[in-house]
Amino acid sequence: MKKGITIIIAVVSIALLWYFLIKPQDYQIRVVAKSNTGTINQALKAWNNTLPEASVRQLNNLDHLEQQIVSGDSTHIYNWNIIPITDSTSRLVVDIKDAEHSFSNKLKVPFYDTDFEKQSRKTVTDFIENLNAHRKEFKVTFMGEEYLPSTYCACVEHKTTQSTKAFGMMESYPFINSVIASNGIKVNGVPFIETTDWDMQNDSISFNFCYPIIKSDTLPIIKDLVYKEFIGKKSLKAVYNGNYMTSDRAWYTLLDYAEEKNIDIEKKPIEFFFNNPNMGGDALRWKAEIFMPLADQDE
């Protein structure tokens, strides 16, 4: 009898020790989101930037992010874990902790619906509503594999972030157009972006914004303009409709497909644009063809 009581006391003591001192979160929320990992990752970062006192950082990979939100005299820490279910749905497991009042929360949460819990649910709900609204702003259609042909082109080099990529394009559009028009250069297709480096941890990219042109011996030498041969490759392809500021949502669709099918790719997306964003209009009518080159190809 005494041995049994001793074991029970020991188990309860260990459980309480774990709950109050080791358990990382004060409260956990689980919800299904109708989107893939990359889109949720980028949408969460964009939404965070709209909050008055908040910061977010990506941890080891796309599916783990830590967000800190100041609420009154507290700092609430949200650990967002994204678990893929299908190619278009994910489970979000959000672990939430109040850095200053963790012990008090753990004491109250099992017995009361606290203000901390209410605020946590509201925050997660606000993000899901924001994500659902964002999903209506674009469309991605996976097309399969396609060979992307080579072309000669005139390019402007950029180094920026994914979210500001379109602004770099908009700045370069009039510059390249004026060079082409004033020098009688013959265009040979729609403008495109050739990504040369993609830092997925920091969302930074380097890319060439290019116009396909007919190569000639009389091309003018212009500062900041580079002439080069774009080498075509067999690639995974998707069609993106929406504002070009978020065309990288198609990148993640191609990444997910490659991972699912165990296809080795170069994470250097290429985008061909069929609309001029400077002209405005209904962004859902804008079209871009997005390519992710297959790796280990003979050039």
Topology:
Blueprint: H1 2-22, E1 27-33, H2 37-48, E2 54-58, E3 64-71, E4 74-84, E5 90-98, H3 102-108, H4 115-135, E6 138-147, E7 151-161, H5 165-183, E8 192-199, E9 204-212, E10 226-230, E11 234-242, H6 249-260, E12 270-273, E13 287-293
Antiparallel strand pairs: 1-5, 2-3, 3-4, 4-5, 6-11, 7-9, 7-10, 8-9, 8-12, 11-13, 12-13
InterPro entries: Reg_factor_effector_dom_sf
Organism: Maribacter litoralis
Protein name: Effector-binding domain-containing protein
Question: What features would you describe in this structure?
Answer:
By secondary structure, the chain is α+β, with helices and mostly antiparallel strands. The chain is built from six helices and 13 strands. The chain has helices at residues 2-22, 37-48, 102-108, 115-135, 165-183, 249-260; strands at residues 27-33, 54-58, 64-71, 74-84, 90-98, 138-147, 151-161, 192-199, 204-212, 226-230, 234-242, 270-273, 287-293. Helix 2 packs across helix 4. It starts with a helix and ends in a 6-residue tail after the last strand. Residues 10-23 have low confidence and may be disordered. InterPro entries: Reg_factor_effector_dom_sf.
